[in-house]
Amino acid sequence: MSLLRVTSPHVSGQHQVSAVMRDVLFATLPGIIILTWFFGPGTLINILLGALVALITEYAVTALRGQNPRIAVSDLSILVTSTLLCIALPPYAPWWLIVLGVVMAVLLGKHVFGGLGYNPFNPAMVGYVVLLISFPVQMSSWATPRGLAEVPGLLDTLRHLFLPDTIDGVTAATPLDLLRQNTGLLFNDLIASRPELTGWGGVGWFEVNLAFLAGGAWLLYRRIFTWHAPLAMLAALGLCALIGYDGGSSESGGSALFHLFSGATMFAAFFIITDPVSSAVSNKGRLIFGALIGLLIYLIRTLGNYPDAVAFAVLILNFCAPFIDHYTQPAVYGTRSND
């Protein structure tokens, strides 16, 4: 079977593209605010540094390709890529990790395929996976949330950024890490034994997921994307968690609420898999696309070596998107579908 070369739908016009990107950036603000409250100002600094690196890299690459760099940076798409990547990074990631991740996202995730509108993979997730595979220790150094430890201030955060050896005192395992490392406790006993797991998704993580859910709901209201992929992903992930819960034994994969409100679940559902370039085109295709991502997230979380599997699941389904499009394209009006 030869795959169709389908161009994903885009909003036409430079002004309209930048307006959509502004809406996406605005929708990330609730999540960024909650991340900053619970984990300190590290995420804000990551975003600012990542934005600077992204703009410089985008300007230089487009100039080398003989394009107008001012037009390339004015549509704000590169800022969306760097912001989404930096939100996913640990708050106290060293400066070189941020620089490398953003450069890889711009070069390998976007320009190697021809630029905006031609990338088959989500650029932010390309940069994230490069870092996760290459530097697993630095990528797992998440901060202890407010309420369980003192949150570092701005000066301490800057010190962690440029002197990463000082980071050990403020890091802790995430709720998904703790679930993955559990070897003998019942799920409810594990929750009771670790204060980090208080609440449906863990201290801080439940609130962060709620904030990204709110931002995603606003984007749906603005009709930036359709509901099909996010709802399918969340439904599939929740259903898999219900099936695999088995009453909460030590081998349980965790409850449905835990999976839905921990890690990067809501962030992925509304800000990552809804990328119009690298996802499926039709509404039916988006349902399949989102559901398979939800299934893969659960399988990798519970059976794989990585506690949170969003980036790998998204990239695998980005690769499959043309295949999904081939079988879910609606028939042209006045013609019969090919069965």
How would you describe the overall organization of this protein?
This protein is mainly α and 339 residues long. It has 2 domains: 40-172, no CATH class; 173-331, no CATH class. Helices cover 60% and strands 0% of the residues. It is built from 17 helices and no strands. The longest helix has 23 residues, at 42-64. The chain is globular. Residues 1-13 have low confidence and may be disordered.
Search tags:
mainly alpha; 339 residues; disordered N terminus; 17 helices; single chain
Instruction: Count up the helices.
Output: 17
Number of strands: 0
Q: What general form does the structure show? A: globular
Order of helices and strands: HHHHHHHHHHHHHHHHH
Main sheet properties: none
What helical percentage do the residues reach? 55-70%
Helix/strand/pairing class, anyone?
mainly alpha
CA gyration radius, whole angstroms: 20 Å
Quote the distance from N terminus to C terminus. 14 Å
Which consecutive residue ranges, at least 5 long each, have pLDDT under 50?
1-13
Domain count: the total is 2
